[in-house]
Amino acid sequence: MSTAAQIRLRPLALADVQIGPGFWGRRVAINRRATIPHIHRKLLETRRIQALEMKWRPGKSHRPHQFYDSDIAKWLEAAAYSLTTHPDPKLESRVNAIIRLLGRAQQADGYLNSYYTQVEPKRRWSNLRDMHELYCAGHLIEAGVAHFQATGKRTLLDVVCRYADHIDSVFGPGKRTGCPGHEEIELALVRLYRATGQKRYLKLSKYFIDQRGRRPHFFDAEAKARGEEPGAFWGRTYEYCQAHRPVRRQRVVVGHAVRAMYLYSAMADLAGETGDDSLMAACRRLWNNLTQRRMYITGGIGPSFRNEGFTSDYDLPNDTAYAETCAAIGLVLWAQRMVNLTGEARYADVMERALYNGVLSGVSLDGRKFFYENPLAAYGDQGTIRHGRARRQEFFGCACCPPNVARLIASIGTYAYSAGPGAAYVHLYAAGEAAAEIAEQKVTLSQHTRYPWDGQVSITVTTAAPVRFDLMLRVPGWCRRWGVKLNGKAVRAAVMKGYARIRHRWADGDVVALSLAMPVERVQAHPKVPQDAGRVAIQRGPLLYCLEQVDHAADVHAILLPDRSRLTARFQPRLLGGVTVIQGRGLALARTGWTGRLYRPTARRSTRPIRIKAVPYCLWANRRKGSMTVWLPRA
Amino acid sequence: MSTAAQIRLRPLALADVQIGPGFWGRRVAINRRATIPHIHRKLLETRRIQALEMKWRPGKSHRPHQFYDSDIAKWLEAAAYSLTTHPDPKLESRVNAIIRLLGRAQQADGYLNSYYTQVEPKRRWSNLRDMHELYCAGHLIEAGVAHFQATGKRTLLDVVCRYADHIDSVFGPGKRTGCPGHEEIELALVRLYRATGQKRYLKLSKYFIDQRGRRPHFFDAEAKARGEEPGAFWGRTYEYCQAHRPVRRQRVVVGHAVRAMYLYSAMADLAGETGDDSLMAACRRLWNNLTQRRMYITGGIGPSFRNEGFTSDYDLPNDTAYAETCAAIGLVLWAQRMVNLTGEARYADVMERALYNGVLSGVSLDGRKFFYENPLAAYGDQGTIRHGRARRQEFFGCACCPPNVARLIASIGTYAYSAGPGAAYVHLYAAGEAAAEIAEQKVTLSQHTRYPWDGQVSITVTTAAPVRFDLMLRVPGWCRRWGVKLNGKAVRAAVMKGYARIRHRWADGDVVALSLAMPVERVQAHPKVPQDAGRVAIQRGPLLYCLEQVDHAADVHAILLPDRSRLTARFQPRLLGGVTVIQGRGLALARTGWTGRLYRPTARRSTRPIRIKAVPYCLWANRRKGSMTVWLPRA
Fold this sequence. Notes:
2 copies of one chain form a homodimer.
Chain A: E1 10-11, E2 17-19, H1 23-45, H2 68-85, H3 89-105, H4 114-118, H5 133-151, H6 155-170, H7 185-196, H8 199-211, H9 218-225, H10 257-274, H11 277-293, H12 325-342, H13 345-359, E3 377-378, H14 401-410, H15 413-416, E4 417-420, E5 423-426, E6 432-438, E7 441-449, E8 456-463, E9 467-474, E10 482-486, E11 489-491, E12 494-496, E13 499-506, E14 511-516, E15 520-525, E16 535-540, E17 543-548, E18 559-560, E19 568-572, E20 579-589, E21 599-601, E22 607-616, E23 628-629, E24 632-633
Parallel strand pairs in A: 5-9
Antiparallel strand pairs in A: 1-4, 2-6, 3-23, 4-5, 6-7, 7-8, 8-14, 9-13, 10-11, 10-14, 12-13, 15-16, 16-17, 16-24, 17-22, 17-23, 18-20, 19-20, 20-22
């Protein structure tokens, strides 16, 4: 396998992908109709948008916070994606109103930060380590690019280009030294470069990446300049922000998980743009460490609330899992870059795992409530401690997750397809249409499927003229039996890096049918994961399942799953908007004979049979509040 | 069962109990030879003792801390107990040196606190909630009583009486209102009353207890007087210090676990001294809540590091268990009071459980290293997060646990025996001798036993003249088969509140042999404890066992215990100073087939047989650093 860094595939533009009715179509609709307006309302209620009016003065209430600009920017990005696929004048006027505020808030030199300009005007760029200044800038840049691509208007793009130019005038060789404590601007600058063609943005991104972890350490010098002890900060160590050593020498995913994902995404972007194999090699090493030792089965990452991030290999506690929604989103961002760089399906496997489980669990089915943390076990009657919380919230003081999940769902189409030389790739299965230019021919792929509820996928090719290309269909890592038919006849497809390759001269109306066997599976974790020893999780297709208290007469944490119990899948159209549940027999630990006792000798197994019903993990906590568990003890 | 509060039994005085060679004799010797000198050295190294010289001035280093006096007081108490059973001129001169410092540090009005006098001389009694002023006073009082009882000298007793009198002049009806944030002085004042006969100390104790949780809340008023928001403190809620409601209306053990235990101990003391049935009823309710819903199988209590205390019913995580050593010690203190108030062995059962497991785990076998937290699972390669730590430390910045365990072990004899009307009680089995006056006759009970390594206990009665009394031998709650012989002949003994009653007219040389069957048991937890579902712990007699990594080729967290696997006990004289281990066959999760994978479908069980060797939990972490686990998944 070559490790040479180059971009092999290009994701289809969002405008060219239409997600039709089905699992994702529904989520996109909820996101558009509920989540995006809800977040806008919350941004107003919490006076984040008003902070852009630049009327705050010392002593007044509602002091702007250093994260605010990023919350607004991510909402703008989500709105831009939504406008791409679903024009909406009301939404557009809300967007334009904020863009006007941003334009007015921008300083003459291009600087744009509502916190510093109003609260600490003399302290710009004095604390890159902690103050999220470049992080906010990065999100504004992403919003500017997304808005330009959605509308063709340069209103926000021009603002962020001026800001990026200002930043470029401040930092770089022969100028100020620096790199951000919270990564984000690096990947944003690559996006800006791709949208504008201006190489200076790519160079500035590379500068920030290359500065990271250098000795003498910039964060030390910066702290001393403020008159502070270098080590005295929230993160405590530079591992926290992946600045403990130069990025090419990093081998283990450490620190704050969201920061890590944004950094690695930028490293992948730069590797692809610059052909830097050493960056690509670092990405591969970090990827393997993450996905083989530090990732929940949900695709959630970062088990600890202490650093909102990573701990040690195989440390994956379930009830105290932090697994921030933003971190799973960051993993999707990185995975998409890796799959497009390499054409290897294993990256898309992780992308799918995170999307269907650890990301979607972050937002309620009504689109108006969010999890910041995504534990794999929750105790419904939990009181004061940080174990899995069983209820989503409408918003957060630190509100990164809601607009992040909104921008990802709004742009889901672009994660589903890529075009490569003489090939069209399907990474994700979702009803809808994708238009691509392949082998210099415009073709449309119309996908019909009920995925993930079943594994049948039919793709109809529309083309003005016959065209030869490879249709590359991902064979998911979870799938152990599959087949392909072309126009009704079984064909043998070679598997290339995890994709079934259907090499064909396509005529208009050709139909490919992919059939993925989707049995109910019991999955176990690596024996080095102490919390999951002797336990299994239930999975079917890409969906991980869980037991919720509302469906069970016995405490879900006291239910064992016998190895021999048959588990069957059944679609329930009225449950949770239509969902395939898994049913079978479990064993509930008997509650008799315990009066006055907390411990007792085991005489017999003392269990009773109980019907179990598992629902997709991503849909938990949408009904009555109660306990939940993913990993069941085997019996 | 009567709930009337009265003292039924009196523990034998420490001077009247001699602990002979054996399990406890060895621990007492280590405590005397290693732990007590080690802590003295640490008190000097950390300049705690020097803080009593009252030479600190603002701007100087080594500022006294508000806990320091209590650390010194507990060491003095431990030293006093040790002097009681083992005179030692060198130790006595160290004790006297500190007493001289305390005498000089005492202010003219009797006030004695090294922190306030030197650091905040104007702020005495301004923050009872947080500043441990009365807590330190309580420990000084306990030390004063212990020193007086050990040596007959009033040097320290006079100091603490003056201090208690000063406190009595400040607080009480018609004087200042108040009660401490960290309980301790309440039980100390009862001790001082018992030692001196001065009723005012008992009344002051009752005053503090009765103030607790009253509305309007004293802590609110006190905070406002300091110009602070009432809720803005470390504990956040008054549950933290059991001041959320009056003590007689408390039904659930809440908040900081050590504080809770000291409070309940004082409530039991007061119930006994005053015949207050409402206090006794509260004690019984709280006891049942604690031992039936909130106690680890080790007798450790307080699962959360956040409040160093309690969370919710059945929440007993193993790897993140806080289970502070001091909290298990506090449980022993409370249990001893409850057993002496009621004559019910169930309290002694918990006392024994905590002593042999959650307390003893707090100190290394060499007596010079300590656990503050006592988790039930540890991951040996653990990095940055708060999971079970696999290595004890020489001391702590907050050094409450080391001198606390030292004072408990030094006084263990007084927990073993009590005298009641016409009865001698044996609560704990340990080789040695106890002298008691029963039915107005001096008798000596000589105990011969290898307990807890086996369940054979022989007691020889020495008496100048025949005497009729009931010998009450505790039948431990863990024991399901037992028998008694008197002078070699089996006798039927009635069981009274958990004690086998041997009613006899005792002649000199009579021998009672108690035989307690001590098979290896698998124990399960209540099905509502989510962390232990599908798991068993190994117990034999009072000792809980664990698997340590050093004894196993497979990761201990990947070892399952089949229900049918036979477990056998075997004494290994050279291991850990002589210890009974439990051996048998387990199943280790196979490590093959995992290359590059973190999750995979379960095809077969994929385990391999492995020999397991369990060692007593209290002795873990005395060899090579590594993982440990108590609760094994059943297979």
